[in-house]
Amino acid sequence: MDVVRVMEALAEQGVTVLFKADAERMRDRVKPWTFVASGSPFREDLLVRTDAVSVEACLDACLPRLREFGLVIPE
């Protein structure tokens, strides 16, 4: 999966996407990656978020939920 293509596709649909790598959690080997999506396709108080062991694991957890909201995401 091309992470940049996914992020661009989401941004084009009004979604703000954030990926974060946490140095402390990486050092402790505890789900160092965070994915957060928010923005105009959702209600103001809604975030799609997960913490995971890798960028790919974040996407595996969050993309199905984003698709449920009707967003078009490349494979």
From TrEMBL:
Domain of life: Bacteria
UniProt name for this protein: Uncharacterized protein
